Each structure stands twice: as C-alpha cells, then as structure tokens.
C-alpha cells in the first residue's frame, strides 16, 4: 500500500471564520465598485496560493489557509482600478518577504497583507493614490458593471485626501454606509462593524486589541482636535474614514504578528492608535493605519517580553 496522500491545504478553523467575516465586505465592494473587484480578488488569491506553494513544496508542507485570508485582506486594501500586474507584484512581495523569509506560517513578524500593500503603495504611488472611481448607487449597482466611473479631480477623491487638500470631510452618513471613493473593502464602516461583531462573538479576533487601537486613536485625535491642530479631522469622522476600522478589525488583530499577552495587546493597540493619528496629520501619507500596524508589529515581541519580565519581577517581589 502507498503512503497516504498529503492534503494540499492546512485546515485552519480560525482562518475560515475570518474568511466568512470578509464575505459581506467583498459583496459590498462589488456593489459599490463593480465586478472587477471580484476578478481582482480571484487573480490575487491564485497568485498568492502559487507563491506560497512554491516555497512550501520544498519542505513537503501543505499550503496554509491563512494565505487565502492574506490575499483577501490585501485585495480589499487596494483601489478598485489597481492594475492586475501591480496587484500580483504586491501579493508575491508580501508572502515572500512578509512571511516565507521568516520560515512560513506562524513565524512571520509582520502582517504579510500589509507588507504587500505597503510595498505597492510606495513603489507605485500614482495608481495607488490618485486613480479612484465613483461608488455605484441604486440597483443593481456595480453588479452590472465591470468598473464604475473614474475620478480625476481631488475634490472628488477619497475622504482623507479631500480633507488634507481642502479641510473638508464627507458626511458621517456616507462614511458609515460606504458610498464614497476609496479602497475596495475600507469604505463601509457599517459592514466592517458587523464583521467585527461576528469575529468577537466567535472568538476569532481580540476585542481587547480592537478597543485599544480605538482608545489610542480617540485619545490622541481628540487631544489634538481640541487644541485646534489644523491637520486633524473630527475624531468621529476620522474614525469612519481612511481604513482605520478595517485595519483595526482585520490587520491589528492578526494573531501571529500581534502580542499574545493581555497587557501586551492593550499596549500594542494604543500604540497603533496614537501613531495612526500622527502619521495621518503630519506625514506625507493620507492614511496612517497601514504604517502604524507595521510599526506595532515591529515592537510586538518586545512588548510581550517586557510584560513577561515585569510579571516575573512582581512575582519575585511578592515572594
């Protein structure tokens, strides 16, 4: 008798629950921006799976289902009109340099989806920061379109870009529902919040990390806003725009690249929230959550070690 055939994919219930939570966001992205969103997602997922398979086959390991989550998250952070070749370059870079160089699944320091997104953001700034499309309205919306109408004027760009250029912000209703220009999965605060509730209910993501990010964001943003700092928008409107909620729910809570200690999660989350406000207001980038989470990933191991050392020292004092 021959040896049993090894499975192609590693079964991961946690990752499947994250995939389920992303389905409504994908559907909404198709409605607002067109069927190209779905095709882009399929393309990125296929490339991402191949990239991981190329490395894992050398060690006779199955492909992790986490790579599918990575591909979904990465795609949802892209503008609707992102060229397919740029999307492919980004996901390959994210998986190779954000995951495989550290030894594969469970060993990566940084969130691979954000590594890929950051790489294409700084390498191809024009298609990633200038070329946006209008959201569809009515029925069937984007379900009957390949891609919605493009936008060229800054006055009709994404909410954070508009604010940086004009000081004006979209209404909270539009920001909450999501019928605004932006990246595929980051526009609808309503759907992201519903997905967050599902993840928390199924214990698939840390509510402590989510709450800590928002606490750090609101503390820093409110302080600067009340002091009259001109680059800082209203904390509520800022929370509903720029991908803050999407990053908080799906990226900051990545169980591999975030702290495991309870105290560490709070420190890590608050750090991300504070840094997000600083980058948004004073750096060259309109959005700050992407870079803030990668900075948080950098300090994650140190935060956990510091918390453990502090606890051990307290135990010794108690003895």
UniProtKB/TrEMBL annotation:
Broad EC category: oxidoreductase
Keyword Lipid metabolism: no
Superkingdom, natural source: Bacteria
Cellular component annotations (GO), alphabetically ordered: plasma membrane
Record field: transmembrane: 14-32, 84-102, 176-201, 207-229, 236-254, 266-295
Annotated GO biological process: electron transport chain; transmembrane transport
Pfam families the record matches: NQR2_RnfD_RnfE
PANTHER family: ELECTRON TRANSPORT COMPLEX PROTEIN RNFD, NA(+)-TRANSLOCATING NADH-QUINONE REDUCTASE SUBUNIT B
Name of the protein described by the UniProt record: Na(+)-translocating NADH-quinone reductase subunit B
């Amino acid at each position: 008798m021959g040896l049993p055939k090894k499975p192609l994919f590693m079964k991961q219930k946690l990752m499947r629950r994250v995939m389920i939570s992303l389905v409504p966001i994908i559907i909404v992205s198709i409605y607002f921006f067109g069927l190209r969103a779905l095709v882009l997602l399929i393309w990125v997922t296929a490339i991402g799976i191949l990239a991981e398979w190329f490395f894992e086959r050398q060690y006779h390991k199955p492909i992790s289902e986490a790579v599918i989550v990575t591909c979904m998250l990465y795609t949802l952070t892209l503008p609707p009109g992102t060229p397919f070749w740029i999307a492919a370059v980004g996901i390959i870079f994210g998986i190779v340099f954000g995951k495989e160089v550290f030894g594969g699944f469970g060993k990566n320091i940084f969130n691979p989806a954000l590594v890929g997104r950051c790489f294409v953001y700084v390498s191809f700034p024009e298609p990633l920061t200038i070329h946006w499309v209008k959201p569809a309205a009515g029925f069937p919306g984007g379900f009957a379109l390949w891609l919605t109408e493009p936008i060229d004027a800054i006055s009709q760009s994404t909410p954070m870009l508009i604010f940086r250029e004009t000081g004006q912000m979209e209404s909270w209703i539009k920001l909450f529902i999501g019928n605004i220009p932006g990246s595929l999965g980051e526009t609808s605060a309503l759907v992201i919040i519903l997905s967050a509730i599902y993840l928390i209910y199924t214990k698939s993501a840390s509510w402590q990390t989510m709450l800590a990010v928002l606490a750090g964001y609101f503390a820093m943003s409110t302080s600067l806003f009340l002091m009259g700092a001109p680059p800082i928008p209203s904390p509520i409107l800022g929370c509903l725009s720029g991908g803050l909620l999407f990053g908080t729910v799906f990226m900051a809570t990545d169980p591999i690249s975030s702290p495991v200690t309870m105290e560490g999660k709070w420190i890590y989350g608050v750090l991300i929230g504070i840094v997000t406000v600083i980058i948004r207001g004073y750096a060259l980038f309109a959005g700050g959550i992407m870079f803030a989470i990668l900075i948080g990933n950098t300090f994650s191991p140190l935060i956990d070690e510091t918390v453990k050392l502090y606890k051990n020292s307290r135990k010794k004092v108690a003895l």
